[in-house]
Write a structure and sequence with these properties.
The chain is α+β, with helices and mostly antiparallel strands. It has four domains: about 1-40 and about 45-70 and about 75-115 and about 140-175 and about 210-265, Beta Barrel (Porin); about 275-320 and about 475-570, Immunoglobulins (Immunoglobulin-like, Sandwich), CATH 2.60.40; about 330-465, OmpA-like domain (60s Ribosomal Protein L30, Chain: A, 2-Layer Sandwich), CATH 3.30.1330.60; about 580-685, 2-Layer Sandwich (60s Ribosomal Protein L30, Chain: A). About 20% of the residues lie in helices and about 40% in strands. It has eleven helices and 29 strands. The strands form four sheets. Strands 13, 18, 20, 21, 23, 24, 25, 26, 27, 28 and 29 form an eleven-stranded mixed beta sheet that branches. An eight-stranded antiparallel beta barrel has the order 1-2-3-4-5-7-9-10. A four-stranded antiparallel beta sheet has the order 12-11-19-22, with no helix packed on it. Helix 5 packs across helix 6. The longest helix has about 35 residues, at about 1-35. The termini are far apart.
Length: about 700
C-alpha cells in the first residue's frame, strides 16, 4: 500500500511538472501570434475552408492502481500500457490574420489499450510441491468518444503551420476487460480449478464522462489544384490530459495522432444584385426616422473636400476647368499575372491584324496613365514595328508561393513573346526570354501585395524608344477639390451585414463603394481620376449610403447633392477671359521604398526644365502606395518631390508630399500601387 501511495504521489508530481510547461508553450504561442498580427496587414490570401480528416491514434497509458473500484484483481500494480485507435471528423478553418488561423474540428473516435503485468510467485501445485508460478495480469480499456477541438494555427510558411489549443471530449462508452492467467507451470491451476481467474468485461466503474486535453501539433498544406482551393494536409498532433479515466483511480491517457486532412475553399456567394440594381431598390425606399418602431438604426453621410496635397477642406461645390496641356505618362515595363497562371490577363487589351494596321500613338489623346499602361504590349509592338533594329528581353518572374512550379517565370515570358510574334508579327530573333524565381528588384515577399507584384514579366530593350513615356497634347480637366471624403454613419452603431455608398449624376452611377461590417469612418474618392471625365456635362452630384442589417433589411440615408461647375475651353474662348496652359508631367515610377532619381527620370526632368517659361508656376506633388506606415509614406513622398524639385532647380517649397492619403490609383492592383509611387509636376503658364 505504501508503495502504491508513493507511486500515486510521483504520478501527480509528473503531471504538475508537465502541465505548466504545456500551458506556457500554448500561451506563449498565442501571445506571440497576436503580437505579430498587430504588425501585419490584413490579407485576403487566406480564405474560409471546410473539410474532413482521419487520424490513426496511438494511445499511451499511465497508471498506478492494482484494481478498479469494486472489481477483484490480484495484480500488484498496473503502471503503463499502450494501444491504437482511429478517429474521423469535420474541420472548419477561418483566417484571423495573414499568419493566424482558427481551426475548429469535431471528431468521433475509438481507441483501446492494454495493461499487461507478469508476476512470479511461489505456489503449491497439485502434488503439494512448492513451485514458482508465472501469472499474467491483463486489463484492456476500450473507449468511444466525440470531441470538439478548437486550435490556433500559426503559419510559419504559407504551407506549414504549428497548432495549439484544447480538446474537449464526451465519452459515449468506456469499458474494460480483464483476466489473470496462470501461465506456468503447465499442470498448475488456480483454486477455482482453472488457469484463468477474475475475468470481467463491463463498464469501467466511476468512469468520467468528460475527457479534457491540451493539444499541440503541426500540419502541411499541399495544394491539389492550380487555383489553390483544394488541399491535402498531412498532420501530427499530441494531446496531453491530466484527468483520470475514472474516479478514485490514477489512470491517464495521452494521444499521439497522425493522419490526413482534405479541405477546400467553398466558392464565394456573390450578391445577386449589381450596384445599379441595388441602387434602384434603395432609392425607392423612404429613409426611416429614428425612433420608428422596428427601426434598429438610421444612416447618414456627410461630405468634405480633399485638396491635391491630401488636406481636408470645406466644400460647397465641385469646380471642373479645362486647360490646354502637354502630358507625359510613364510606361511601367511590367506585365502582371495571376497566381499560378501563365495566361496574360484580360485587362491587357489584344489587337488583331486589322486593328494593328490602324493602331497609332496619336490616339492616346486624353487617356489616363493607367488606361495607357494597359496598352503596354501594343505600345511595345507598335514601337518595335517602327524601329526594326530594336530588340527586347522578357524576364518572367514569380513569387515564393509558386516555388513548386520551377518554370513559371519562363512560361510567362513565353506568353508575352507569343503575343508579340503572333499579334504584331515581331520576329522571334528580336525577343529573348528568360525566367527567374523572383525579380531582381523584388517587392516585399512577406505580404500578399508584394507577392502579387512579383508575379510579372519585365520588359527591357536595347532602344530607349521602346519604353519611352507617352507624350500627347491633351485637354487637362482640373478638378477642385481634387477629392471628396464621405463620412457615413449609423445611429446607434450596431453590427451590420454590409454597406454601399453611391455617387451619381442623374440615373448614372459614377462611383460605388461597398464592404462589410463595420461602417468606415470615412471613404475617400479622388475625383481627378481619369481627368475628371466621368463628371463631364454634370451640373450636380448626388450621394447616399445604404446599410444592410443582419436581417438583410436595407436602411438608406437621405440623398444629398453637391453642385458642379464646369468651365470648358470653348466657354473661355467665347468669353475672352484670362486663361492658362497646365502641363502635367509624371515621373518614371520610383522603385519600391526609393526616392532617388533614376537616369530615365533625370532625362524627363531635363525635358521639363527646358520647357518651363519665365513666369510659369511649378508645383510638384509626391505620392506613395499603401505599403508601409502612414507616417513613413508621408516622409517618403516628400523626399521624392524634393528630389524632383532639386533636379528642376526649383525651390523645395514648391514640393509637397501626400503619402498614401490620396493615392493616384486604386491600390488593390499591383499596377495601381506601382503607378502611385511617383511624382507629378504641374507647370502653369499664363496665356496672352
Amino acid at each position: 500500500m505504501k508503495n502504491t501511495i508513493n507511486q500515486l504521489v510521483e504520478s501527480h508530481r509528473n503531471v504538475n511538472r508537465i502541465m505548466p510547461r504545456l500551458v506556457y508553450v500554448i500561451a506563449f504561442l498565442i501571445v506571440a501570434v497576436v503580437a505579430m498580427k498587430s504588425q501585419t496587414d490584413n490579407s485576403k490570401e487566406s480564405s474560409l475552408r471546410v473539410g474532413l480528416f482521419g487520424n490513426v491514434d496511438y494511445s499511451l497509458y499511465s497508471a498506478s492502481f492494482s484494481q478498479l473500484p469494486g472489481i477483484p484483481n490480484c495484480c500488484p500494480e498496473f503502471k503503463s500500457g499502450s494501444g491504437v485507435g482511429w478517429l474521423v471528423g469535420l474541420s472548419y478553418l477561418a483566417p484571423i490574420s495573414e499568419d493566424l488561423n482558427l481551426h475548429l474540428r469535431m471528431h468521433y473516435g475509438a481507441h483501446n489499450g492494454m495493461f499487461s503485468v507478469t508476476e512470479t510467485k511461489e505456489i503449491v501445485d497439485g502434488s503439494d510441491n512448492r513451485v514458482n508460478a508465472t501469472i499474467t495480469h491483463e486489463l484492456t480499456g476500450t473507449f468511444n468518444q466525440v470531441s470538439l477541438e478548437p486550435l490556433l494555427g500559426y503559419k510559419v510558411t504559407s504551407e506549414f503551420s504549428i497548432l495549439g489549443g484544447v480538446t474537449v471530449g464526451y465519452l459515449l462508452s468506456s469499458k474494460f476487460e480483464q483476466q489473470e492467467t496462470l501461465s506456468s507451470p503447465d499442470n498448475a491451476v488456480f483454486s477455482t480449478g482453472s488457469k484463468v481467474r477474475n475475468y470481467d468485461n463491463t463498464d469501467i466503474p466511476g468512469a468520467q464522462s468528460i475527457a479534457l486535453g491540451l493539444t499541440v501539433g503541426a500540419n502541411y498544406d499541399i495544394a491539389l489544384n492550380s487555383s489553390k482551393t483544394v488541399f491535402l494536409s498531412p498532420e501530427v498532433l499530441f494531446s496531453f490530459s491530466p484527468l483520470s479515466v475514472a474516479k478514485d483511480v490514477s489512470w491517464t491517457i495521452q494521444h499521439l495522432r497522425g493522419g490526413l486532412q482534405l479541405s477546400f475553399i467553398p466558392p464565394a456567394i456573390e450578391d445577386t444584385l449589381s450596384d445599379y440594381e441595388l441602387y434602384e431598390v434603395v432609392r425607392a425606399i423612404k429613409p426611416p426616422t429614428k425612433g420608428t418602431p422596428g427601426v434598429q438604426f438610421v444612416s447618414d453621410v456627410t461630405v468634405s473636400g480633399l485638396s491635391s496635397d491630401g488636406r481636408q477642406v470645406a466644400v460647397s461645390s465641385v469646380k471642373v476647368e479645362e486647360f490646354e496641356s502637354n502630358r507625359i505618362r510613364p510606361i511601367l515595363p511590367y506585365v502582371f499575372f495571376d497566381e499560378m497562371s501563365a495566361t496574360i490577363p484580360q485587362r491587357y487589351p489584344s489587337v488583331n491584324e486589322t486593328q494593328r494596321e490602324n493602331y497609332s500613338m496619336d490616339n492616346f489623346y486624353n487617356l489616363d496613365a493607367m488606361v495607357t499602361y494597359y496598352q503596354l504590349l501594343n505600345i511595345v509592338g507598335r514601337r518595335m514595328e517602327d524601329n526594326p533594329a530594336a530588340t527586347i528581353t522578357l524576364t518572367g518572374c514569380g513569387d515564393k508561393s509558386e516555388s513548386g512550379v520551377a518554370d513559371m517565370g519562363t512560361r510567362r515570358a513565353s506568353a508575352v513573346k507569343n503575343y508579340l510574334t503572333s499579334n504584331w508579327g515581331i520576329s522571334d530573333s528580336r525577343i529573348t526570354t528568360m525566367g527567374r524565381e523572383l525579380p531582381e528588384q523584388a517587392s516585399n515577399s512577406a505580404d500578399a501585395d508584394g507577392r502579387e507584384e512579383n508575379r510579372r514579366v519585365e520588359i527591357s530593350s536595347n532602344s530607349s524608344v521602346i519604353l519611352a513615356p507617352v507624350s500627347s497634347k491633351d485637354t487637362l480637366r482640373s478638378v477642385e477639390p481634387a477629392g471628396l471624403r464621405f463620412s457615413p454613419t449609423i445611429d446607434p452603431r450596431v453590427p451590420i451585414h454590409s454597406w454601399t455608398l453611391w455617387v451619381t449624376s442623374g440615373d448614372r452611377i459614377i462611383k460605388a463603394f461597398h464592404d462589410g461590417d463595420p461602417v468606415p469612418a470615412s471613404v475617400d474618392w479622388r475625383i481627378a481620376d481619369q481627368g475628371g471625365n466621368h463628371i463631364k456635362n454634370t451640373t450636380q452630384l448626388k450621394y447616399l449610403v445604404a446599410v444592410r442589417d443582419s436581417a438583410s433589411q436595407l436602411i438608406p440615408s437621405a440623398t444629398k447633392t453637391i453642385p458642379v461647375t464646369e468651365i470648358t475651353l470653348a466657354s473661355k474662348l467665347k468669353s475672352g477671359g484670362p486663361d492658362k496652359t497646365v502641363d502635367r508631367y509624371s515621373m518614371i515610377l520610383f522603385p519600391f521604398d526609393k526616392s532617388d532619381l533614376t537616369v530615365d527620370n533625370m532625362e524627363i526632368t531635363q525635358n521639363i526644365k527646358n520647357n518651363i517659361q519665365p513666369g510659369a508656376r511649378v508645383s510638384i506633388i509626391g505620392y506613395t502606395d499603401r505599403s508601409g506606415g502612414e507616417e513613413y509614406n508621408q516622409k517618403l513622398s516628400e523626399q521624392r518631390a524634393k528630389s524632383v524639385a532639386r533636379s528642376l532647380s526649383q525651390s523645395e517649397s514648391a514640393a509637397t508630399g501626400v503619402g498614401e492619403r490620396l493615392p493616384l490609383y486604386d491600390n488593390n492592383s499591383p499596377e495601381g500601387r506601382f503607378y502611385s509611387r511617383t511624382v507629378e509636376v504641374f507647370v502653369e503658364t499664363d496665356r496672352k
